[in-house]
Amino acid sequence: MSDKLKEQEDRYQLNTYAKFPFFIDRGEGCYVFDEKGTRYLDLYGAHAVASTGHCHPHVVEAIQKQAAQLIFYSNVSYNSARARAVAKLIKLAGPPYYQVFLVNSGGEANENVLKLARVATGRGEVISLEGSFHGRSYGALSATGISRYREYLNTPVPMHRVVSQEEVVQNISEDTAAVLIEPIQSMGGVQEIGSDRLKEIQAACQAHGALLIFDEIQTGVARTGSFLYSGHDGIYPDLVSLAKGIASGFPAGAVLVTEQLAAGVQKGDLGSTFGGGPLSCAAMEATLEVIESENLIENAARMGRYFREKLMEIPIVQEVLGRGLLVGVRLAEGMTAKELQGVLLKQHILAGSSLDPQVLRMMPPLTITTREVDLLVEAVKAA
Ligand SMILES: Cc1ncc(COP(=O)(O)O)c(C=O)c1O
Fold first, then answer.
1. Structural domain span for residue 145
2. Which of 188, 200, 267, 322 is the least buried, fewest Cβ under 10 Å from its Cβ?
3. CA-based nearest residue to 134, from 269, 239, 205
């Protein structure tokens, strides 16, 4: 049966994804199960999405309850789930973030931060960094600084400039609407930009009236040991894009806006049919409740430290990159991340690679415990 279904998926789904060679049809906490019932430890976190783990009972219950009550109505009406979700999100994000625009994905969140910045400044130019990933929609892809993805851009959206970290400040001018930054370039090899550089960029933005935007689609929602990376070392960007784990896997994204920018937004400036739908808001509210009630921000910080401490004991590990539960493991020459990923897969552990062939990437559920980290460490030692 599963062979037939596999053939069916290959036959009818556009051939654009490299896939694990098995089905994942069930998940629970930090684990997923294939068609034979074999259990895999999911340190890839379903692409950094399974923030509260797979099928957290509180999230499942909220989705089920909401589905039975109202699956969808758009933003032309008020909705209780939406009212609760946006209030909770702004409470957790904290000042200076004042209002939120809800969308369905990371790419859509980035399209909207760029639009907001262009409308607010009346300028067109967007500067982004080499090594960054911002999504596959045209504006987000035009801002993406990884050549492998840019190859698909026949004609980038005009006035997007991708520059090296060192060149950002000198390129900001009176034409610049915004600088878009992924504060830890995850796909780019778990490379943290660092506070000194971010402060310099922020000062240059302020001097020229440009906006600073953080793409926190991977670093946000508690992943790095604080609810947002924004605010780290006192650096608050003007706009923040969120998605991935914000609703534990129900498609959702959000744009966080400061009070000053929110004041300039007019009715009709932005819109999205499905953004802020009741089901995604119920999933988002429940996710945020679990993050609070299970102290997942603290857990991400604590487990992040444990990951680093344990991994650094292994001779093949040269360096552990990232923050909290955005973990990059730089391997010494002799074994590539892809090779280690393959060895781990045989031991039923899912991990990711990155643009850097030596960096293995992990974004596990924020609920992870020392038991799962120990399983990984044993497996890497054996490899
Ligand atoms: C940092 C970052 N920005 C944007 C995106 C795009 O998000 P989505 O695939 O939900 O459109 C991703 C997805 O991997 C991402 O990691």
1. 57-293
2. 267
3. 239
